[in-house]
Amino acid sequence: YTFDAGPNPFCFIRQEHVDEFLRLLKYFYPTVNTDVDKQVSSDADEKFSSITLPITPNVLERIVLTKIGSGPKIIS
Question: Which residue, among 57, 10, 19, has the nearest Cα to 40 in the 3D structure?
Answer without folding.
Answer: 19
